[in-house]
Amino acid sequence: MKMKSMKKVVGPEYNLSEKIKTNVYAVGVAMQESVYPHTMTVFYPRERKKMPDNYRGFILFDPDKCISCFNCSFVCPANAIRMKEAPSRRYYPTVDYGRCIFCHFCIDSCSGGALKATKIHDVAYKDMDEMFTPTEEMIELPEIIREDKKYVEYEIEEDDLHLKRTKGEDYLFVEVPPPIQIPMVSQCIDRASCIGCRVCEEMCESGAISSSAENGMLRMKIDTDKCTGCGLCVKECSMQILMLKLKKFE
Amino acid sequence: MAAAIGAAGQSEWEVAVPEKPLKDKTYFENLKAKVIDTNLCSRCLTCAAICPGGITVVGNKVDFPDYETKCLDCGACVRVCPRFVYEPKSGLGDYIEFIAGRSKRFAGQDGAMVTELLVSAIEMGMIDRGLFAGRDEKWATEMFHVREPEQLAITTLGGTKYTFADVLPELKKAVMFTKRGVGIVGTPCIVSGVRKLQQEYPIFRERVKLVVGLFCTENFHYDDITKFLQEKGVDFSKLVKTDIIKGKFISTMTDGKVKFKVAEAEDIIASGCNVCTDFTAVESDASVGSVGSEKGFSTVAVREENAKKVIEYIKEKGYADFGEADTSQLDFLIGHKKKREENIKRD
Is the pLDDT of residue B57 over 80? Predict the structure, then answer.
């Protein structure tokens, strides 16, 4: 629509029958609202809004899948993740929710899929110190008191938005497929400078790096199919001759 | 570096494994048996620099207490140790020119030519950092990465310290950080260590661009020399300069000098120096020392093209005065060190 000149906006002109019709409709809506109120408020905690499955809430941790690559703590823009040594001498992440900005970069960067997102957003703490969550408290879902009997979803119908209430509890932890990661593979960029210390082989969790000694030569091999591109060997190589390269698809 | 990022990587490669004289021992135990226990070790720390396990030297003696837990038995230390297969070097070595120089910009031991060479190389863009040995108020050495000439305001960076410095472990870090190249200054044993690293690993060949050697007769362990000097009445809080001139160890303090003959300190000379025959750092790109030139000048033996370029740059900019150097003055000390060949035990 193109307006060429300014025009004063005027209300529509109704005739008598139309006026009666609109007034009756208005009274009808008012009566309906007084009997069955159509509010937009979610009555938390008696009901909960149903969050999407990939909602960025409390972070869960699976130690069996963690390869201690430190990617989560390096990528964390808020410095909320610290790696702490576990009794097994492996380093596992801890999250300080006083700092966490819930960007979930840690989950996106987790090469082993050990960090998972949950829909839990309502964990209460008494003070800032308590917001520091050690690894042990990240393995299980945190204890929250559930009073909700219904969950609420927004429904959009043309130009109208209203709530849809369903009886039952919303599952707060839904397994979603792991985030798509850029396929990377570890490669040696300066083989002549290799010491042959085999630290990379020792570090590799997926068994992609192997070595064999024969006739005074040490043969190093990276299995590009097994390599997950976690970058552990790249970090540990004391000569810095390993590098993550884009995996090429054939 | 930039080229390496673009270059395709390899997923298969081979590494030559060095030979083990003692088959049932780890490589470091081999090194220990052949070099450290036989008092051949010069404490250049080339082994500690390359060690992927992170072996550390403790104190100021030749002592690696954690080798049993840290050793990965890779053989890197054996490959780089300049004295595992020891070919003693001696004499003046090859050189393009032998000159005396005095920096107009910096204050150092004599003519401050080491500082001038490294800073000029940084200005030229040949290197982006130079490794200097500084010292704390107790004259213990510490390493500095100098990237700007202004950093030389730390006056302790120039001048000779007659104790060991952990130059090579720091060189490894510098090589990993550098974009253009690293310049390094060290005693003949350190220069030999750098050359050995460069010979074995291309990463050092590409990134260590300037190696300045020092004329060196002997060196002392920190604990020994501090104890010795204190007995002689040297107050470290007032000490400003140490020097060896014509066989005399001179400690210059703010309120006087303590002089004694170096021969008196013979008992505390580091054991590795007793088997060292290299006085002029023949393997360096340029060697610098005080012998062979007038007071206030440093003697510079320019050996390689890269050092020649730096000297030409200094001449062009007029950063230093140059004069004649007399190589015959070095003959006595070269001969003195050459005699130490007798101390090397051959098996």
Answer: no
Residue A191 to residue B7, Cβ atoms within 8 A: no
d(CA A49, nearest CA chain B) in Å: 48
| pLDDT tens, residue by residue, A60-71 | 999 998 988 888
Report, as an integer, the average pLDDT of B125-138.
88
Tokens of B55: 């072996």
What's the domain count of chain B? 3
How confident is the model over B8-50, as pLDDT tens digits? Answer: 778 888 888 888 888 888 888 998 888 888 888 888 889 889 9
Hey, are the CB atoms on A220 and B15 less than 8 Å from each other?
yes
Is B3 in CB contact (< 8 Å) with chain A? no
Q: Are residues B178 and B165 in the same domain?
A: yes
As a whole number, mean pLDDT of residues A12-19 equals 89
Q: Is the C-alpha dihedral spanning A129, A131, A132, A133 positive or negative?
A: positive
Q: What's CA A129's distance to the chain center, in Å?
A: 24
Q: Give A 179-238 residues with CB within 8 A of chain B.
A: 185-199, 213, 216-224, 238
Q: Is A159 helix (H, G, I), strand (E, B) or coil?
A: coil
State the residue range of the domain holding B239: 222-258
Q: What CATH number does domain A184-246 carry, 3.30.2170.10, 2.40.10.410, 3.40.50.800, 3.30.70.20?
A: 3.30.70.20
**From residue A130, how far is each of A111, A125, A178 by CA, in Å?**
28, 6, 29
Collect all residues of chain A within an 8 Å Cβ-Cβ radius of residue B49. Answer: none
